[in-house]
């Protein structure tokens, strides 16, 4: 806990100072410390994204950013805004922040933390954005802007990768400053994402803030649209938010096109990042053929698409079985999956129907536009890969709209307290959820509470790997473990090695003397096939 507090004390003033710089160019979305901190997140994230095309996000980048942020924080005496809080507000923020920090000290348990988040951050800090990185390990082609933001602070300020915990503290400041107490009801659920730099947490928290601002009458189209695109760039499944802000700009705010330019710039940077790392504008969809020479192999894209379809049905059916489904089977089997996901899917559809009816009855323009935006997003998710993690944000949105006027401060604090006790208990004593909810697979990886968490957050170490060489690529593979979260770079996950060899290809360095020149895929010649088969056999023998 102590080390996370130090990270927060370091990073939050830097974000506020950076937000002050953003104010000079774009103004403020809303007044207060939270508004500046969020502007700082936007500004630093975009600045580091541009830098990462050319240099790694190492300690020199971090120290320079820290110095600049602190300079503007103290030069403009932004700490004085703390005096605007009452004693009761400070007590509430301190109490809530203590619970947030406590939750953030638990061990990471989301599998993407080990297979995607940490490897991505390692690549960014050691090399920056790498051209065609998806050819090495397909998942790395995402390179989320949130991981770019985390990577820049991971050298010194936040080495334990708890930036989500810090964002929740900023979210708490926002709730207190703006007196929007219903948001306290969302915080306990988000505690479950605070141990990892999961993009799910920032997109949910930030989208609720933007939705709250629109609902409250904020008409700063420039920053509302810019933040909406930024949230979409962190995780494209949040497409409902830029659609909503665009529709509001056209039909409610009557804004001119110039006010959308900042958001369009962020969108173009997002496309450029994806094309550089993946070969197409939006990961993992192979739409927008540009003839990029480092784009992934078609067989690998096909395998990824098949896997996404299987994930829709929680891997309970093979791809061949799903292909034989009738239209009725597709719907029925999705609703009747074994375990908790069946209930989530049913609740999702019921919520959409209820929200559509609510919008029809209310006949308010904003709610109607929001309903249209959410329905568009839901249709796209259902058509692509209807996994609950892709539509979980919809539950937050619908709850917010339904209960916005009901939850005052007292009710919200009661809900926050009860749910916080529940979720901290789950993290501390995971046996209950492991025994009574076995279909919730992440629950099996929750480690429980350890005394050392009072000093530093819990982490895992493995550091067992083998080194191989195929063609001009020398790479590392975690030994008897599917992920490479602490394996030296370049590292490849075993699943992608099997996929590559099956497709008779393998990643190669574009320039064998410079890894920053990126990766391409190459058809295996006879000698390389033998090398690749040796790798496969070694992995199989190790797994035994």
Task: Please give a structural write-up.
This protein is mainly alpha-helical and 544 residues long. Helices cover 60% and strands 4% of the residues. It has 22 helices and four strands. The protein has a two-stranded antiparallel ribbon. The chain has a two-stranded antiparallel sheet with strand order 3-4. A hairpin with a 2-residue loop joins strand 1 and strand 2. The mean pLDDT is 93.
Number of DSSP strands? 4
Structural class: mainly alpha
Strand content: under 5%
Q: What is the CA-atom radius of gyration, in angstroms?
A: 23 Å
Biggest β-sheet strands, sense, barrel: 2 strands, antiparallel
Uncertain ranges = none
Q: Any idea what the shape is?
A: globular
The portion of residues assigned to helices is 55-70%
Which key terms come to mind for this protein?
single chain; 544 residues; mainly alpha; two-stranded antiparallel ribbon; 4% strand; globular
Summary of the model, kept short:
The chain has 544 residues and is mainly alpha-helical. 60% of the residues lie in helices and 4% in strands.
């Amino acid at each position: 806990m102590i080390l996370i507090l130090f990270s927060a004390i370091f990073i939050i003033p830097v974000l506020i100072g950076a937000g002050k710089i953003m104010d000079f160019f774009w103004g403020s979305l809303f007044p207060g410390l939270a508004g500046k901190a969020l502007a700082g997140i936007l500004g630093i994230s975009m600045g580091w994204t541009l830098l990462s095309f050319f240099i790694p996000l190492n300690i020199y980048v971090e120290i320079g950013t820290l110095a600049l942020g602190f300079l503007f924080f103290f030069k403009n005496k932004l700490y004085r805004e703390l005096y605007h809080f009452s004693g009761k507000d400070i007590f509430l923020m301190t109490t809530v922040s203590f619970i947030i920090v406590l939750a953030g000290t638990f061990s990471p348990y989301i599998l993407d933390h080990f297979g995607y988040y940490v490897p991505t951050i390692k690549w960014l800090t050691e090399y920056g954005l790498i051209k065609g990185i998806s050819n090495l390990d397909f998942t790395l082609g995402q390179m989320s802007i949130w991981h770019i933001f985390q990577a820049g602070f991971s050298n010194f300020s936040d080495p334990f990768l708890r930036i989500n915990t810090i964002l929740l503290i900023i979210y708490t400041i926002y709730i207190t400053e703006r007196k929007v107490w219903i948001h306290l009801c969302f915080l306990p659920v988000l505690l479950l994402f605070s141990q990892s730099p999961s993009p799910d947490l920032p997109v949910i928290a930030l989208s609720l803030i933007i939705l709250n601002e629109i609902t409250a009458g904020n008409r700063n189209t420039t920053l509302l649209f810019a933040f909406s695109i930024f949230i979409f760039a962190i995780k494209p499944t949040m497409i409902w938010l830029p659609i909503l802000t665009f529709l509001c700009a056209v039909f409610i705010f009557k804004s001119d096109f110039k006010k959308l330019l900042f958001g369009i710039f962020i969108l173009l940077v997002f496309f450029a990042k994806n094309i550089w790392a993946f070969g197409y504008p939006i990961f993992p969809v192979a739409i927008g053929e540009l003839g990029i020479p480092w784009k992934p192999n078609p067989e690998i894209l096909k395998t990824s698409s098949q896997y996404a379809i299987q994930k829709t049905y929680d891997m309970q059916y093979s791809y061949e079985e799903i292909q034989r489904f009738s239209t009725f089977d597709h719907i029925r089997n999705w609703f009747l999956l074994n375990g908790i996901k069946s209930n989530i899917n049913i609740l999702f559809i019921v919520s959409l129907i209820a929200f559509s009816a609510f919008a029809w009855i209310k006949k308010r323009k904003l709610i109607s536009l929001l309903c249209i935006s959410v329905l568009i997003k839901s249709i796209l998710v259902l058509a692509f890969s209807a996994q609950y993690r892709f539509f979980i944000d919809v539950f937050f949105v619908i709850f917010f709209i339904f209960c916005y006027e009901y939850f005052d401060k007292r009710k919200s604090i009661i809900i926050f307290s009860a749910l916080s006790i529940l979720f901290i208990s789950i993290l501390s004593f995971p046996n209950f959820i492991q025994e009574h909810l076995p279909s919730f697979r992440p629950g099996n990886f929750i480690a429980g509470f350890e005394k050392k968490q009072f000093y530093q957050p819990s982490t895992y170490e493995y550091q067992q790997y083998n080194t191989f060489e195929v063609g001009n690529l020398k790479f590392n593979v975690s030994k008897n473990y599917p992920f490479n979260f602490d394996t030296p770079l370049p590292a490849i996950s075993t699943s992608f090695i099997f996929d590559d060899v099956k497709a008779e290809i393998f990643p190669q360095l574009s320039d064998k003397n410079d890894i920053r020149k990126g990766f391409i895929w190459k058809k295996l010649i006879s000698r390389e096939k033998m090398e690749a088969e040796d790798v496969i056999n070694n992995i199989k023998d190790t797994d035994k």
